[in-house]
Amino acid sequence: MVENQENKLFDNLSKITETESDSISSDKIFVKFDGSLLGLIQAADVEWKTVQEIFTLKNGYTPSKSKPEYWENGDVPWFRMEDIRTNGHILSDAIQKCHHTGIKGQLFSAGSIIMATTATIGEHAMITVDYMSNQQFTNFTIKEEYRELLDDKFIFYYFYVLDDVAKNNLNQSSMPSVQMDALKKADFPIPSLEIQQKVVEILDKMTDYVTELTAELTLRQKQYSFYRDQLLTFPSQSDSDESLLVRWMTIDGIAKKVSSGGTPKTGTKEYYDGEIPWLRTQEINFGEIWDTGVKITEAGVKNSSAKWIPENCVIVAMYGATVGKIGINKIPLTTNQACANIEVDEEQVDYRYVFHYLTNQYEYIKSLGTGSQTNINAQIIKNLKIAVPPLKLQSKIVKILDKFQALTADVSGLLPEEIALRQKQYAYYREQLLTFSANSAKASH
Q1: Do 125 and 114 form a contact (C-beta atoms < 8 A)?
Q2: How many whole angstroms separate alpha carbon 285 and alpha carbon 321?
Q3: Are 278 and 317 in contact (CB under 8 A)?
Q4: What is the pTM of this model?
Q5: What CATH number belongs to 247-388?
């Protein structure tokens, strides 16, 4: 009965990974662009005004920090550059709030644009609530007579053009700032609302693509973590059914050998630039290792503690920023002293099962570190507990987790390339869509 339930679980998970594989390997969503629509937009009739004609410009400010009552129980979103860096360019809440008693005059109204005009020049965001900002930002609030003529999102997108105007008109001083007269006199187009909405629709699609791709990666990572946790969680006592017999052992108990390496003396030329792969912990990142960034010589091996390990060892980073990360060497290589190299006993464990199991224990392994760099040592690794089910069950677990890892790696590999490509496409078409032919005279300055 238990074995039938177990087989059903694995069958269901296998179907999930096959379905996910199909969805990942299919063509990605590409934003298709109608060239005739671009021509229509660029040729549209446009009324041109200056920035100062359309917007009221006013700097933000910081309520006195010496008055705690201005900051305790804050009820007014107070925006800083940190908000843009953390939460993007369309903001509905601020990381920090001030109290309304500390505000001079009126709040800036929802739909206003904040633009950094000192320090980090030319970063902007649209704020969707009434708010206050600090003095790094100039706040652009649309005048009442233009509210019915301009779409909020169109304004937001056109401010990317004004970002460049700001960056190209700076006061020369130790603290860079924008020449506000030039920014105020910059031209701002008012095409028909229909044209504005077409521009917004296209640029929204391009923006959404990157968001969807990032969400897809996050979903794959969550799925992988969830199923890994489910598959690698065992009862502390063995089930009576022999098919689920689990032994609790130490890493030392399932290993032929646990070793670390060494570093040939730096600065000795004859020890480096050889042909022997030499692994450092910064190259360990929960995956397979097929090459190393540094190669050493036979002399480097002989005159140091660096030593060869066979392929398919499970390697744990013991020092520094990568402590607790896991890898598998797919080629024979040497390592430095910060690597704990586990050569597993194949009669007891599948090396990929050990890899997945320790990957699932990453946060716990990290927590065992000591000292300012939270280092661990080989003895800590040897003493780690590991659940050891029968090899047949290990193989089933490995098959499923390998699939999920491959799916996640596939999306992770695509993500930077896809985002870079889409951002270039986005920047190009944003410029094209916001460049209008001179069908009507630009605003006189």
Answers
A1: yes
A2: 11
A3: no
A4: 0.57
A5: 3.90.220.20
Q: How many CB atoms lie within 10 A of CB 130?
A: 14
3-state helix, strand, coil in the chain (%, to 5): 45, 20, 35
Q: What is the pLDDT along the chain (445 residues), one digit of tens a residue?
A: 445 545 554 555 555 555 444 444 334 434 455 556 667 677 778 899 999 999 999 999 999 999 999 999 999 999 999 999 999 999 999 999 999 999 988 999 999 999 999 888 989 999 999 999 999 999 999 999 999 999 999 999 999 999 999 999 998 777 789 999 999 999 999 999 999 998 998 888 888 876 777 777 777 778 778 878 888 888 764 444 444 578 999 999 999 999 999 999 998 999 999 999 999 999 999 999 999 999 999 999 999 999 999 999 999 999 988 999 999 999 999 999 999 999 999 999 999 999 999 999 999 999 998 877 779 999 999 999 999 999 999 999 999 888 887 777 666 555 667 667 777 777 777 788 778 765 555 555 5
C-beta of residue 76 within 8 angstroms of C-beta of residue 98: yes
- Token readout for 416 is 């930077």
Beta bridge partners of residue 187, listed in sequence order: 50
Topology adopted by domain 45-189? Adenine-n6-DNA-methyltransferase TaqI; Chain A, domain 2 (3.90.220)
DSSP letter string, 155-174: HHHHHHHHHHHHHTSEE-SS
Do 389 and 10 touch, CB atoms closer than 8 A?
no
